[in-house]
Design a protein that fits this description.
homodimer, 213 residues, mainly alpha, Arc Repressor Mutant, subunit A, Four Helix Bundle (Hemerythrin (Met), subunit A), 2 domains, 3-stranded antiparallel β-sheet, 9 helices, globular, DNA-binding
Chain lengths: 213, 213
DNA sequence: TCGAACCAAATTGTTAACAATTTTTCACAA
DNA sequence: TTGTGAAAAATTGTTAACAATTTGGTTCGA
């Protein structure tokens, strides 16, 4: 597993950090030269990073105008939620049983960790869980699309209201879902996911209300 | 409506042409300098074009190795079909009635043109139709994802077996779907789309069998 | 014959300068 | 005050040269 340093990739993840930490606010322009200076590189690698982030849906590039941090409204985020769940449902239909032992263990461990996680940790575990579920299908198309959905949702995760009650509820849903998948009760899994989508949207909207008005 | 020449965009569409016309076969490498020479530009714009096509799912870039024409197998194409239909179903649920008059007319005209289209024309009209249906929802998220699905499917459209009988069948499905949408019978529309997905897949696979052995 | 080490060629990555375009600023007139 | 237009500044687009890396082939030794 070689993970050679790829300059544009490093720059991209730094820009993501800046978005998550509100140093770059949605709608604002990302000026190539500014970033080039802070990284001590030329503008080339910055441009590449911006292209990558455009693919992930975090940046919007307008020819000859510049690159902007993409702005998502409530409706957009709910739609992303919905597409994510739809992809998960489709991928569950493609599962081949028996599921590989090592992947089962990985997901078991995520659920375990969720019990004792704090808010921030829970967000990360939550995303991990859904991604691992999707990867169970070993389907490149779904994985590919899923990764593009994830980025905006992760960047805006800070808006999700993770109260102890919400986390408790969410955890229960995850347990149910995982149990249904393991026992090959796919219709139940589908129903749980559809419920999870609704409650997820609700938590999302609650969080947005709280923090922006 | 200003459509200024954007070099990378032009190059990208030329590369798409080359893929469609089999000058670039799936799996082969796209060498930057080669294309730079044929266009009389430097490598910069070529790289941008390759990034664009990566976003559209036609090219896969591997750092320090190069850009390759992405290879899709049967299963991949069926999955893309399925995701496309799922997006259409989701977007139909978001329609706001009454539908705008001008868009209704546009789609009416596509259906009309389908009656007298030859095979090649029909493929294009078919894609147009589905895209216009999706655009009815005026939902940027769906449009965005849809455009990424379309490219690989269009590039491989040549595999779809468009016999007169198949076209006839497909046309009927489109009429049914459009009628259901206009009359706001969304459950029917959904059912028709699900059927259309199955028969579309079948035509696809028939075409692949025929042309590749 | 096979594999490892090495060299040369091909290719991608990066840079810095220049060109083209957009945005900002500001003077001026209605 | 407000709007217009032209310079100036800022920014993106493009280029060509150079650096770093990968690829392909060749030699050598076992």
């Amino acid at each position: 597993m070689r993970e050679k340093t790829h300059l544009p990739k490093m720059i991209a993840s730094q820009i993501v950090m800046d978005i998550v930490n509100n140093k770059l606010v949605p709608g604002s322009k990302v000026i190539e030269e500014k970033y080039a200076n802070t990284f001590g590189t030329s503008r080339g690698p910055i441009r590449e990073a911006l292209y990558m982030l455009e693919t992930e849906g975090l940046i919007e590039r307008i020819p000859k105008r510049g690159a902007f941090v993409k702005k998502y409204n409530k409706q957009d985020l709910c739609d992303l939620f919905e597409v994510r769940i739809a992809l998960e449902i489709m991928s569950i239909r493609r599962l081949k049983y028996p599921l590989p032992e090592n992947k089962i263990n990985e997901i078991d461990r995520i659920i375990e960790a969720m019990y004792t996680a704090n808010q921030e940790e829970y967000s990360i575990l939550n995303n991990d869980f859904h991604y691992k579920i999707l990867c169970l299908s070993e389907n490149e198309i779904f994985k590919n699309f899923y990764s593009r959905l994830g980025a905006p949702l992760i960047a805006l995760q800070k808006f999700v209201l993770e109260t102890p009650e919400n986390i408790q509820h969410s955890l229960q849903e995850h347990q149910l879902l995982w149990k249904a998948i393991k026992e090959r009760k796919l219709n139940i899994a589908k129903a749980v996911l559809e419920d999870h989508m609704e409650s997820g949207k609700k938590r999302f909207l609650m969080g947005i209300e709280k923090k922006t008005g």
